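REQUEST ID: PR-0412
SUBMITTED BY: lab tech R.K.
PRIORITY: routine
TASK: structure prediction, single protein chain
INPUT:
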Amino acid sequence: MERAVEPITEAEAPKRIIDVRTFWQAVGLRAVGTAVVTASASQGPRGFLALSATHLSADPPLLMVSVDKKTSALQTIVEAKHFAINYLSTQQSELSAIFGGRGELQGADRFTTAQWTTVATGAPALVGAVGVLDCRLEDVIEKENAAIVIGRLVDFSSTEEAAPLVSFRGKTL
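STATUS: complete
OUTPUT:
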């Protein structure tokens, strides 16, 4: 659905209702690297498709991820005190659907569909990912139905020849 950009006045802004579907349409206007955030604790590995994973600060080196409170991986991140941001390659596009909750696989079963290793913190790292950012948990800020998870970058790796999988307007490219 095409929507022309129409300027609105400050007086009109409070009248606009942004529901969940409209929110994701708006957020989807930014092209981002498709990422799966992972952690591993007592119940095994957990992961989810992260539509919001970005840097917070370079000094100190902090990253942040937005996590829906209903996502089982949130409790795993809190218990494990770590997480890894795995940026998918174009060769790993099926993982976007799997970790995005489309399909029957859940929890640790999602990790049976690809080759994984671990990074320094113990978080699962996807073999062949464009990049893996290994983070030690620093803080969790809860707001509404989400949590902002902040982690200190402790290590990273990259696969130079891998082409990034990009998410744009709800599709992977």
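NOTES: The chain has a mean pLDDT of 90.
REVIEWED BY: pending
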